[in-house]
Structures are given as C-alpha cells and as structure tokens.
C-alpha cells in the first residue's frame, strides 16, 4: 500500500513539473520577465522575514534578561558603573543613553561628583532617552518596507503579466483567424501563471509583515515603558528638591 502511494506521489510530482515546464514554455517574454522579478521579490521578502524574526526574537530574549537585572539593582547607575555590556539589547541601549547623560550632569565643573541634578537637567536626560527609544524602534523597523512592497506590489505585477499574456493570446487567435480550445488554452493558461506567482509572493509576505509589525509594536511599547520607568527612578534618586 505504501509503495503504491509513493509511486502515485512521484507520478503526480512529475506531472506537475511537466505542466509547469509547459506553461513556462508557452509564456510570453514579458510574462517570463515578470515571473523572474517576482522570484527576486520572493527571495528578498523571505530574507527580510527570516532576518527580522531572528533580530526581534533575540531582542526579546535580551530585553528579558536585562529587565530582570535592572529591577534587581539597588541604584539606577549600578549596572553602568559596573561596565555591564548587553550588545544588541534595545532596552540596554536606552539605559546606556540615559546613564551617560546622567553621569555627565552629575559631574561638576571642578570634577566633583554631585548627588542631585536640577529639573532642567532631568528634562535634557529625558529627551536623550526618548531619542534613543525612537532610534531603536527605527532600527527594529528597518527592512519592513521591503515586505510592504512585496505585499502591495506582487499581485499587481502578477496581474500585469496575466493581462499582457491574455492580450497576446487573443492577438495570436486573431492572427490564426479562428478560435478553438487548442489555440487559446495554452496562452491563457501561461498568462494566469503570473497571477499565481504574484500571489505566492504576496501571501507569505502579508502574514510575515503582520506578524513582524505586531512584534515591533510590542517592542516599542516595552521601550516606552522602560523609558518612563527610567525617568521615574532617576527623579526619585537624583532630582534636586530645592531649585534655589
């Protein structure tokens, strides 16, 4: 029984290969060019999906490790003073930006270390942290435009190939002077394959894009929440009570 199933599967696969080869041979030059362009789109789209998935997964893992360490430290600058490094962690980048700015504000003109800073200095530090949040969000978002282009552009490229192929098929029928199934079917079938190719590019790209956008929003919210928590702890530990 298993042997029969295997034979049928192999025969079906060979039949599909022959069918695709026949459709490719019947396709117009323009249709073949569009299919090649869509294949390149597909390669880029899958590369972006894999790379961004790994990047966001790594960022999520590192954010979790850093957040656990951050909540266990006694003072805001403890990890900074211990020269802890967490490369590739968005939360750590935000933390370092705030700590570097805070450390500079705590150093007086004579080199003496102050224990508090003014509200004006706090506002400068907050802006530096917010800029880093925006920069990290953009870094995570970079490359997603390629998926957006694949989702929106691939079906239209496929449709263009189909319309062009059907137009060529009807032109061939007109030149032949008679319309029958044998005359029209190969050209129309070959024309429709470009739409199939466009959808094969757009559908996975759409799912991948939506999943990555969801993860991007989650990461951005985490960055914003951490920036607010950083600012709150900074004000609690270092804000000068009297501005006189």
- In whole angstroms, the N-to-C terminal distance is 91 Å
Arithmetic mean of pLDDT = 81
Strand segment count = 0
Strand content: under 5%
Rough shape? rod-shaped
Low-confidence runs of at least 5 consecutive residues: 1-15
Sketch the topology as an H/E string, one letter per element: HHHHHHH
Our Rg estimate from Cα atoms comes to 29 Å
* Structural class by sheet pairing and helices: mainly alpha
Number of domains: 1
Major beta-sheet overview: none
The helix content is over 70%
Q: How many helices in DSSP terms? A: 7
Topology:
Layout: H1 2-26, H2 29-72, H3 78-81, H4 90-106, H5 119-141, H6 144-176, H7 181-238
Helix pairs in contact: 1-7, 2-6, 2-7, 4-5, 4-7, 5-7, 6-7
Plain-language structure description:
It is a single chain. With 244 residues, the chain is mainly alpha-helical. The protein has one domain. Helix content is 84%, strand content 0%. The protein is built from seven helices and no strands. It is rod-shaped. The N terminus is likely disordered.
